[in-house]
Design a protein that fits this description.
The structure holds two protein chains of two kinds.
Chain A lengths: L2 E3 L4 E9 L6 H11 L9 E4 L5 E14 L2 E9 L7 H7 L5 E7 L5 H17 L9 E6 L9 H8 L6 E3 L8 H18 L45 H7 L6 H6 L2 H4 L2 H11 L11 H10 L3 H7 L9 H7 L5 H5 L10 H18 L3
Parallel strand pairs in A: 2-5, 2-6, 6-7, 7-8
Antiparallel strand pairs in A: 1-2, 3-4, 4-5
Chain B lengths: L5 E3 L1 H18 L3 E6 L4 E6 L6 H21 L7 E5 L4 E7 L3 E7 L5 H28 L9 H12 L3
Antiparallel strand pairs in B: 2-3, 2-6, 4-5, 5-6
Helix pairs in contact in B: 1-3
Classes of the chains: A alpha/beta, B alpha+beta.
């Protein structure tokens, strides 16, 4: 989401470097940080583990200067590439304006590239984004290594939509700036094309005739589709509305795939789900009415135990299954207060005893 | 995406700044930042000159986002207030409307209770202003970026990004 502040006259955009683990996302940022003039960039922040693996994100703010009276600022983020950091990876994508997908060109990394690309699409969808409309550039990194896949092979699997792509070697710096320039241009173009009607804001700059987006400046092969004009209907439904409704949707699928961060909660959640029935939401305090009603139908011993006190007299199907015996309803309703009946075996014992004394005393 | 760009005009920023200044005075806090949930700094007030507010905004938004996920995992939709206690300085964060966070940095000259009280009142007022901004942006879709903005940016980029 492009942030435009007319008071401080700033335009702020968020660009996220996405890709599989160890593909070179942080290296891209480090190169930009080392080469860009110090008055243009801010401090680079890296939330990494002790082994220098990104834990949450890397952050590098860049201010390219004043354009038409507006200071253009770009915030470059990277995500943690490892699979089990999906929870934090998704958070970084919030409010993204453009994505650079950094792919590893080595043949044995192709599966990870594809998985990461699918994960990107999935995470964007959860925020209500459409990958088709989001500015995105693909960077085939590590081209300096021997035995890397050809561009045709990479494009066939990772760039079906024909997005702009660049060959790069982030450690040497080749292609890093080309990628960044391209994504910035695409993001600004998208921000500009987002303006639909013409009323001028209070402090806006004069509107010049439109200039079409050109890609001549790019020396690499680029096949870019022109940014689509937004549909009028999208004006009524803002992304925030989609976001606001997101937490209320069932969370079973994301939480199961979240990995290490969410794994601690998963067993308990699943247990609750199995008892609670239809709802996938985490409910630690089940509502009395609905839960007990559902509990009657469940034949697990645990459930029957909780519901026993309620349905002791009128419905004993659960208990029958639990004990495996048939119990007469009347015995529960009207407890028998009479003396216990003598069973035949006892009778026989009494007779035998009496016979013993008879024989002892010679009674006939 | 850009469909719901946050566009704030001078009029609203002045109102926001006035509210935050009033809060700082009342709560006797050091400084306050208003941060978008995406990590953009909207405005700042008080003694912020020694702070890297851009980085601070990004990290605070990240912190808030991760806490939201934690809240969701324990069955809460969102934690609306966060508090970080340090030896000297403390940070109080509270949610403003749907998309912003009010961050107040204060030291031992005031108390958490005072900050919380003033921050809560200010958050409610700020939320009203943000509602107006949202309504305005619904009617007015012009981002204000001139059409040669991109081409001018390209020239700048070529100057800055040189290997």
């Amino acid at each position: 989401m492009v942030s435009i502040n007319y008071s401080s006259r700033e335009v702020c955009c968020k660009i996220v470097y996405y890709g599989p683990g160890l593909s070179g996302k942080t290296t891209n940022l480090l190169y930009v940080h080392s080469k860009v003039p110090s008055n243009t960039r801010g401090k680079m922040i890296s939330l990494a583990t002790e082994a220098d693996r990104t834990l949450y994100f890397d952050f590098l703010p860049i201010n390219i200067g004043t354009i038409n009276g507006f200071a253009a600022k770009f915030q470059l983020y990277t995500v943690p590439g490892q699979v089990y950091y999906n929870a934090t990876r998704k958070l970084v994508l919030r409010g993204v304006d453009g994505v650079v997908f950094v792919a590893d060109s080595q043949p044995d990394k192709m599966d990870e590239n594809i998985e990461s690309l699918l994960n990107l699409e999935e995470n964007l969808q959860e925020y209500g984004y459409n990958l088709e409309e989001l500015p995105m550039v693909i960077q085939y990194n590590k081209r300096d290594l021997p035995g890397v896949l050809s561009l045709e092979q990479l494009n066939a699997k990772l760039n079906v939509k024909g997005r702009p792509f660049y060959e790069a070697s982030a450690t040497l710096g080749n292609g890093v700036f080309d990628t960044l320039k391209m994504i910035i241009k695409m993001v600004l173009e998208k921000a500009k094309s987002n303006s639909r009607s013409k009323p001028k804001p209070v402090t806006a700059t004069p509107v010049a005739p439109p200039t079409s987006f050109t890609s001549e400046a790019i020396n690499k092969p680029v096949s870019e589709s022109a940014p689509k004009s937004p549909e009028p209907s999208s004006a009524t439904l803002s992304r925030e509305h989609v976001l606001a409704s997101a937490p209320s949707t069932p969370v079973s699928t994301p939480s199961e795939k979240v990995g290490a961060v969410a794994s601690a909660a998963v067993p308990k959640v699943k247990e609750e789900q199995s008892i609670g029935g239809s709802s996938a939401e985490v409910n630690y305090r089940p509502y009395p009415g609905s839960e007990k009603q559902q509990a009657k139908e469940v034949d697990t011993p645990k459930t029957s135990f909780t519901s026993q006190s309620q349905e002791y007299g009128d419905n004993n199907t659960v208990e029958e299954k639990q004990t495996g015996q048939e119990i007469d309803n009347s015995e529960f309703k009207q407890p028998d207060l009479s003396l216990p009946k003598v069973i035949p075996a006892m009778k026989h014992r009494h007779e035998k005893k009496r016979g013993f004394f008879k024989r002892l005393f010679g009674i006939k | 995406m850009t469909d719901d760009s946050l566009i704030i005009y001078e009029e609203e920023i002045n109102q926001i700044d006035a509210l935050i200044s009033k809060m700082l005075k009342g709560a006797e806090a050091k400084c306050a930042l208003l941060v978008d949930k995406d990590g953009h700094l909207i405005t700042r007030q008080g003694f912020t000159h020694s702070l890297d507010t851009t980085a601070l905004a990004a990290l605070l938004a990240g912190s808030f986002a991760s806490t939201k996920e934690i809240a969701r995992l324990v069955g809460e939709p969102e934690f609306s207030v966060l508090f970080h206690q340090g030896k000297k300085d403390n940070i109080h964060m509270s949610l403003v409307g749907e998309r912003s966070i009010l961050v107040v940095i204060f030291d031992d000259r005031t108390t958490i209770g005072m900050v919380r009280l003033y921050a809560r009142e200010t958050s409610i007022e700020l939320a009203k202003i943000f509602e107006k901004i949202q309504e305005k942006s619904g009617h007015q879709e012009e981002t204000g970026l001139s059409h040669d903005f991109t081409s001018q940016a390209e020239d700048k980029l070529d100057d800055i990004f040189q290997d």
